[in-house]
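Thread: "does anyone have the structure for this chain?"

Original post by V.I.:
We have the sequence but no experimental structure in hand. Need at least a predicted one for the grant figures.
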Amino acid sequence: MREIAPGLWHWTARHEHIGIEVSSYYLVPERVLLDPILPPGGLGWFEQQPPPEHVLLTNRHHDRDAWKLREEFGCEVHCISNGCYELAGRGPVTAFEFGDELPGGIRALEVGAICPDETALQIPAHRALACADGVVRWPGVDGLTFVPDELIDDPANTKVALATAYRALLELDFDLLLLAHGDPVTSGAKRELEEFSAAGSR
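Reply from O.Q.:
Generated one for you, tokens below.
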């Protein structure tokens, strides 16, 4: 567990279905979890924090341990409306639309390209931007990159579309980039995303 900014915690844990470490975040003042998987200490870690009230998903695949957290704390789970079908039968979901303001003053922004429900979350209180699968940071790889081509439909065109979508987000005010796959960028995130977008659009 690592506090990467005041009141903003990051951790990684192994995802049992895909077999790799994934990243999750807790915005303590807002009581908002992003793409949560249980931390290495399990639910016990939350006993030292104000309990979470909301779970926000950056795409339909990232519910992870949201339902365990809902069962324990009564969290409300939020997903973009065009991805809610994936969660049918798992538990109650509150749908949101691109452009909506979510709990914690967080704004949902459309990325698309890699999948229709690919979402970015602007978090003004922490000057942060959270991303789903369109941009990742693999261990041992320098800088931001795409997921492997075998996980992308039409890789060449999808990468260009993703780069264009992220370039549009550079107008926002952020200095942290919260990635669902890979460690977050804790300073200079806008510059890194700009470089990634420029390279991806070529």
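V.I.: this helps a lot. Helices lie at 66-73, 155-169, 189-200.
O.Q.: and The mean pLDDT is 93.
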